[in-house]
Every structure is written in C-alpha cells, then in structure tokens.
C-alpha cells in the first residue's frame, strides 16, 4: 500500500509538471538557442531542473499560501515580469530585424561563445523574473503537491523534478539535432520573431491580470 502511494505521488508530480512546462516560453526558447549553439547545454538543463525542483518545493512548503495572502507581493512580481517580458521581446524583435545574414549563421566556429557565468545569469533572470514561473511551479504545482500526505509531498516534488529533467533533456537533444536547420540565417530570424511576439503576448496577458492582483 505504501509503495502504491509513493508511485501515485511521484506520477502525479511528473504528469502535472510535464503538462505545464511543455509550452513555448522564455526559458524553453533560451535553452533551445543554447542547445543549437552547443554552448553550456548541460549547465542550462541542470539550472532549469534545479530551479523547478526548488520552486515547487517552496510551493509545497507553503509559499503558495504566502503569495495568495500577500497581493502586494504578487503585484510587484507581476510588474517586474511585465517589464522583463517587454524588454526581452523587444530585444528579440530588434535582433530579428537588424541581424545580417552573415552574423546570423549558427556555426559554432563563427559565433563567439559566451561564458558560463553570463549564460547562467541570463537564464536565472529569465527564470526568476518571469511571473509564469511562480504561477506554474510555486502556486499551481506547489498547491497540488501540498495536498499530498506527509512525506509523500517530497515524492511529488521528486516526480516533478524528473519531469523537468526529461523535458529539458529532450529539448536540448532535439535542438542539437536541428543544427542543420539553424545553419540557415532565416531560421534564426523566425526563432527571434516567434520569441519576440510570444514575450510581448505574455507581457500583455500578465498586465491584464495586474488590476485583479491589486
């Protein structure tokens, strides 16, 4: 019976987390870009999995209730997210419009590699300033995990972390197999365009919800 409960909690965490992270978002697009370039891919995957596990764990431990009871905190997080998403989206669209064909080539021998610290810092900002991260991992997944009994809460968190590992591992693997596609400059323009539009749409969606949070 106890084994069945462990399996059920792990599977619940795995399926709930996987259903939420399989979407086009700032974090996924950034990992995709780094994987295509072949730069610090494992570190990016490790960061994403670890941050998901920590944020979901915080939600299970009670941060979801804290955010629900502190509307001003949620409001400030929302405004920070809006500003970040607008800036990120605008920069992606600017990159799409201004990049020359020669500079858009993805050949790793022609693209100057970024340092590990710079890559992880950017990924951390993308992760922690995106309000969807808190809505999905802390509030939604964390609240569901908090309903598990006793130590089964942490089995739920483990299942969610495994889902994150599977998704980002598959994403990076697929992206590295797509290098031939991204060897064409137009592919980078399309990716930047999709990124820019998606970020601006997310910013609008978050901004629409701010009055309710206040």
Index terms:
membrane; LeuE-type; 214 residues; transmembrane; cell membrane; mainly alpha; 81% helix
How would you briefly describe this protein structure?
The protein is an all-alpha fold and 214 residues long. 81% of the residues lie in helices and 0% in strands.
Report on this structure.
The protein has helices at residues 2-21, 26-37, 41-69, 71-98, 116-128, 131-146, 152-177, 185-213. The chain is mainly alpha-helical. It has one domain. Helix 1 packs across helix 7 (152-177) and helix 3 crosses helix 7 (152-177). The longest helix has 29 residues, at 41-69. The protein starts with a helix and ends with a helix. Residues 102-111 have low confidence and may be disordered.
Mean pLDDT: 79
Distance between the termini: 45 Å
Radius of gyration from the alpha-carbon trace, in angstroms: 18 Å
Please provide the count of β strands.
0
Provide the low-confidence segments as ranges: 102-111
Query: What structural class do helix, strand and pairing data support?
Result: mainly alpha
Major beta sheet summary = none
Write the SSE topology.
Blueprint: H1 2-21, H2 26-37, H3 41-69, H4 71-98, H5 116-128, H6 131-146, H7 152-177, H8 185-213
């Amino acid at each position: 019976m106890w084994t069945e409960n462990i399996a059920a909690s792990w599977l619940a965490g795995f399926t709930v987390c996987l259903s939420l992270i399989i979407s086009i978002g700032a974090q996924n697009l950034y990992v995709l870009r780094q994987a295509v370039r072949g730069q610090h891919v494992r570190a990016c995957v490790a960061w994403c999995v670890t941050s998901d596990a920590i944020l979901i764990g915080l939600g299970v431990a009670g941060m979801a209730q804290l955010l629900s009871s502190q509307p001003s905190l949620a409001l400030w997080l929302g405004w920070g997210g809006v500003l970040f998403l607008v800036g990120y989206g605008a920069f992606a669209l600017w990159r799409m419009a201004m990049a020359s064909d020669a500079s858009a080539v993805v050949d790793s021998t022609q693209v100057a590699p970024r340092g590990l610290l710079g890559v992880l810092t950017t990924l951390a900002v993308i992760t922690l300033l995106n309000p969807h991260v808190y809505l999905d991992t802390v509030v939604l997944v964390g609240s569901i995990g908090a309903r598990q009994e006793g130590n089964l809460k942490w089995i739920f968190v483990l299942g969610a972390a495994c889902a994150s590992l599977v998704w980002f591992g598959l994403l990076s693997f697929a992206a590295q197999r797509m290098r031939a596609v991204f060897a064409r400059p137009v592919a980078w323009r399309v990716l930047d365009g999709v990124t820019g539009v998606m970020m601006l749409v997310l910013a609008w969606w978050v901004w629409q919800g701010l009055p309710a949070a206040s």
